[in-house]
Amino acid sequence: MGRRRKRKDLILTFLDFVITINLFSIPLYLFIKFGFELPFLKNLEATLASKFLSFLGLNASSSENFVIIDNSLYEISWDSTGWKSLYTFFALVISTPIFHKRKLKPLLFGLFAIFIFNLLRISATIYLSYKQLYSFDFLHLSLWRFGSIAFLLLLWFIFLYTQKNNIGENKNILGFVYGRGKP
C-alpha cells in the first residue's frame, strides 16, 4: 500500500472517529439540558460509600442519596455519580473504528474501573474533609476534577494501545459498521 493510500486511510479513520464522537455528544447535552437523572445510581453510590467509610472506622450510614457521619450530611448529587465519565468513556470506546467484538471486554473493564474510581473518590473526599485534613472544596473541585479526567484518559489510552493494530479495521458511525470483513 502506498504512502498516499495510507495517508488517505488515516484521514478517513480520524474523520470517522470525530464524526462519531460528536454524534455521541448530542445525547450528553440533551441529558444535561432536560435534567435526566437515575436516582438509583445516586442511592447506590451513597450506600457503597457509607459502607466503605464504616469499614474505615467512621460512624457512617446512608439515607437515599445522602451519606451521614455523626451530625454531618454529605449529598451524592447526580454529577457526583460520575455519569459523565462513564458516558464519555463509553462514547470514546464505541467511536473507535474497530470491530465491536474487540470493544466489549475493554469497555466493561473500563466502565467498572471508572465506577470503582468514582466510589473511592467520593469516599476519600468525605473522609478527608470529615477529618478536616483538607477542605471539601479543594478536594472536590480542584483535585478530583482533574484526577477523574486523567483516569478516564489513561483508560482510553490503554485501550488504544492494546488495539493499535486493529484501529481502522472498519468504519463505524453510531453502530453502523462497514468496511473490511469480520475479524
Brief sketch in words of this structure:
This protein has 183 residues and is mainly α. The protein has helices at 3-33, 39-55, 83-95, 100-130, 136-162, and strands at 60-63, 66-69, 72-75, 170-173, 176-179.
Explain this structure to me?
This protein has 5 helices and 5 strands. With 183 residues, the chain is mostly helical. It has one domain (3-36, 82-179). The strands form 2 sheets. The protein has a 3-stranded antiparallel sheet with strand order 1-2-3. The chain is elongated, with a radius of gyration of 20 Å. 24% of the residues are buried.
- Summing up helix and strand content along with how strands pair, one would put the structural category as mainly alpha
- Written as H for each helix and E for each strand, in order along the chain, the element string is HHEEEHHHEE
Largest sheet: 3 strands, antiparallel
Measured by DSSP, the beta-strand proportion falls in 5-15%
Which stretches of 5+ consecutive residues score pLDDT under 50?
177-183
Q: How many strands?
A: 5
Task: Give the arrangement of secondary structure elements.
Blueprint: H1 3-33, H2 39-55, E1 60-63, E2 66-69, E3 72-75, H3 83-95, H4 100-130, H5 136-162, E4 170-173, E5 176-179
Antiparallel strand pairs: 1-2, 2-3, 4-5
Helix pairs in contact: 1-3, 2-4, 3-4, 3-5, 4-5
Task: List the main descriptive attributes of the protein structure presented here.
183 residues; mainly alpha; three-stranded antiparallel beta sheet; 5 helices; 5 strands; elongated; disordered C terminus
